[in-house]
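Dear colleagues,

I hope this message finds you well. In preparation for our joint manuscript, I am sending the SARP family transcriptional regulator (Planobispora longispora) sequence together with its predicted structure, so that both groups work from identical material. I would be grateful if you could confirm receipt.
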Amino acid sequence: MDFRMLGPLEIHENGRQIRITAPKQRVLLALLLLDANQVITEERLIDELWNGSPPAAARSSLQAYVYRLRKELAGGEGVALRRDGDGYRLRVAAGSRDVERFERAVSAAADIRDPCQAVPRLRAALREWRGELLAGIDVRSVADERARYDSMRLAALERCVRGELALGRDGELVAELESLVRQYPLSESLWGSLVMALRRAGRRGDAAAAYARARRCLVEELGMEPGAELQQLHREILEGAVTRPPDGSPTDGAEERPVPAQLPAGIADFTGRSREVGELVAAADAEESPVMLIAGPAGVGKTALAVHVAHRLRDRYPDGQLHVDLGGVQRASERPADVLAGFLRALGSTGPPPSSETERIALYRSVLSRRRVLVVLDNAADVSQVRPLLATGPACATVITSRDSLATLPVGRRIRLGMFAEDEAVEFLGRIVGGRDERPDAETAAEVSRLCGHLPLALRIAGARAESLMGSSLTMLAERLADHRRRLAELELDDLSVNSSFELSYELLGNRPRAARAFRLLGLIDGPDITVESAAALLGVSPVAAATALFDLVRTQLLEPYRPGRYRMHDLVRLYAAQRAGIDSPDELSGAVNRLLDAYRALAGHAVRVLTERSSEASSPSHPFAGAQEALTWFDAERPNLLAAIRAGLRSPECEEAAVATVRALTWLFRFRGSTEEWVRVNESVLSAARRRGNPAHVADTLDELGKLRRERGDLPAALAYAQNCLKVRQEIGDIGGEVRGHINLGVAHHLMGSTDEAAHHYGIALTAAEQAGDRLAQGYALANLAAVHREAGRYDDAQACNAASVKLCRELGDNPGQIDALDDLATTHRAAGRFGESLEALTGALEIAERIGYVTRVANLLCEIGETRLAGNDAVGGIAPVTRAVGIFGETSDRYGRGRALRLLGRLYRSAGDAESARRCWEEALTELTDLGVPEAEEVRVLVAGR
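The corresponding C-alpha cells are as follows:
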C-alpha cells in the first residue's frame, strides 16, 4: 500500500486508488500517517480532529472513525491500525510513504559532492512532490509539518539545479527555473541559477532582466540588496563574460557519428500507468547503466508502456535509441547475433560485423562505453536471448519487456505489469470509442471494461469493434460480451485477437503435458484463486507435482502468484482454458471437479467440528486446523472458491451429488461468518438438485437452511413455508432428530409472526420428543424457546428456570453455538424482568464464546443486545460503542437487514444520549437499507425520521 502525502492525500494499492472521502476520516489518517508506527493518544487525536472544541460524544465518534478507517485499509500489505495503550498506532511498511522516500533520497544526496551522482537522487526525491503536504487538510500538526517539508523541498531544488548547471544542462533548465522563481521569489539561489543558465545559453539580455527582477523582489519584500554571488553574476553579464560548461562534461561534442532513432511511434492513446512510468523514469535517473524489466501476461500493454517510457527518456540519451522486437513466444524468435549486427550498423560500425557472437558482443559494448544510448528489447523470450544485448555503457539504459519474469537476470527495476484499474480501463475505452451515435455512460463503459477483465488488448479490440461495427454503441457491445460462451470470439478484429495471444502462451506448454492439463482443468473453476493443495485435489496429484505444474503456468504468464501459496487466473484466460478443456474426456472433467469437492467437504467437516465442539475433543495431531481461528481463516480465504467449486459441480449431472453434500457440509461455516445472497441462490439451486437426485435427507436439510436464511432477512411467511415443508419431509423419512428440530424451527417462525400459542405447541412437542429420544442438545434448544413463551406472558421465574436448564445442558454437552443461544435467551429474560446487570453478565459470557470461536454473525447480534440492555438500563452512552461495532460487522458480512436494524437501534441510543443529529443520520441510513429490502421495519424507521 502506497501513501502519497506530498500533495492531496492519496492511497494506492495494486494499481487502484483507495478513496477516503469522509473529511474526519481523512484528517484522522493524515495525523496517523504523519506519526506512522508511533502511538498517538486519543486526547491528541480528539483535540486535532475538532480543533480544540470536541463534542460530548467525541470519544465514541473517534472510535467509529477508527473502525471505518480500519475497514478501508483492511487487507493492505504491511498496514495495520491497532489500539495501543491510551491511543492508536498505524503500522506501515518501510518506504510506503512518499514523505519517507523524499527524505531518504534527499539524505542520500546530502554527502555526495559529485553532481553526476547527487542530481539523480535529488530528482528522484523531487518527483515524489505533487504539491504542498496533505493539501486541503488544515489542522495544527499538518500546518507545522507542511512548513518543514516545503523548506526541505526548496533546499533540494536549489542544490539540484546547481548540480545540473555544473553538468552543463543550461538550456534544459531555463523553463523550469522560471517556474521555480515564481514559486519561491525570495530564493537567491534559484534566481542565481536562472541568471547563470540564461547567461550560459547566450541570452545576455534575458539574464540581465532576470537579475533586475530578482533585485526588485528582494528589495521590496525583504528591504535588502542581493547577495555577493548574485551581484557578481550581474557584473559578469555587464562585462560580457560567458562561462561555458567545464571540459569533459556530458554536453561536450564528439566526432560526427550516426544517431539511431529506432523507437516506434509514440502511443497516441496511452492511458494510466502513472506509478509504473514514475518508477521506470526514477530507475533511469538513480542508477548507472540501469536495466529495467516490464514483465506480464499477454495483452497487458508491456510494449505500450516500454515505448511510452522510452519516449519520455529519449532526450536523456542524445547518442541514440535502439529498438528490436525479439519475437518472444513466437516460434522464430530473433537470434542475439543477428540483433547485434543490426545494432552495430545503426551505431555507425562500417564493414561486416565480426563473425562470432562473442566478438560482436565485445564490439557492441566498446561502442556504447562512451555514449549515452537507450536500448529497448521488446518481447524477449528468455535470459539467454537478452543478456548479450544489454547496454552496459555507464551512461546507457536498457528497457526489456517479456512474458517471462527473467528471474535470473540482474535488473535494477523489475515491474510485473497487471491489468488496468477500473478508472484507467474506462478512460482508455473512451479514447478509442468515438461515440458518434451514442454517448456511452460511465456505468456501461465500466461494464464493458469488467467483461474485458480490464485487459488492455481486449479493451482495444472491444473499443475498435464498437467504433467500426456497432456505431460506437457500447451498450450493444456489452450485450454481446455478456455471453461468456462467445466472449473470446467477440474479442477479435483484423490482426488483433485475445484468443491468439493466449494460444501462443499455451503452445509453450507443449513439452510439459502436466502443466497443460493443469491449465485446462483450472478453467473449470471460476473462483478468484487457488492454492497448491486445492490444485493437487483437482488434478489428482501430490502437492509437489501440483506446485511444479503451477510454476510452469506462472513462467508462461498463464497464472499469477499474487499471495504466498495462492495463484489466480485472469477471467479471459480462464475462458480460454475452459475452451481448451474440450479435448479432455467428460469423465476426466467430472472426476476433477468431484475430487476438489470431496477435498473441500472433508476440510469443511473438520472446521465445523473445531468450531462447534469442545476443542479438546475436536483437535488431534492429525487435524488440519489447530483451533477455531485457523479454521475460520481457511474458510474466509476459501469462501468464494468453495462457492465456485459448487457452481461447477451443479453444472454437471455427474457432480451434483458431491455439490449438494458440500453445500450441506458448509452450512455451519456460513452461519458463523454470515450468509450472502449468493449462499441463498446456491441453496435454492441445491434444493432442485437434491430433488432430482432423490435424496430426501438433503432436501430436508436444504429446506431447513432456506427457512433460516429467509427468517434472517425478515421474510417470515417464506420462512414459515420452508419450515412446514421441511418438517413434512422429516416425518416422511422417519428422521426423529430432524423432526424435533423441525418443530423448533416451526415454533420460532410462528413466534416471530405473533402466534405465541402455536409456537408453544410446537416447542412442547419438540421438548417431549427430545426427552423420549434422549437428545439432550435438542432439549436445550426447546427449553430456551419455551422460556421465550413464558417471558412474553410475564412468567419470568418460569422463563428463567427454562433458560438455566438450557444453559446447563449446552455447557455439559460442550456445544458452543448452543451455549451462545442459551445465554442470549437468559439475558433477554433478565432484561425483561428489569435485571439489567444480570442480563449484561449473560451477554458478556455469550459474547466471549462467540468471539473466541469467530461466530461473527452472533457477535454482531450480541453487541446489539448489549446496546438494547444499556438503553433499557438508562445507559445510552455505554451502548453506542458496541452497536457501532455491530453496524460495521453487518456491513462486512453484507447483511443489510441486520445492518438496518442495528442502525435503527444506534439512532435510538444517540437520541437518548442527547445527540439528535447523529440519531437522524443513523435513521436515514437505516431507512435506505430497510426500504430497499421491503421489510416492515422500514415504516417504523420512517416514523422516527419524520418525528426525530
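For the figure legend, we might mention the following. The radius of gyration is 35 Å. Confidence is low (pLDDT under 50) at residues 241-256, 435-439, 615-619.

With kind regards,
E.M.
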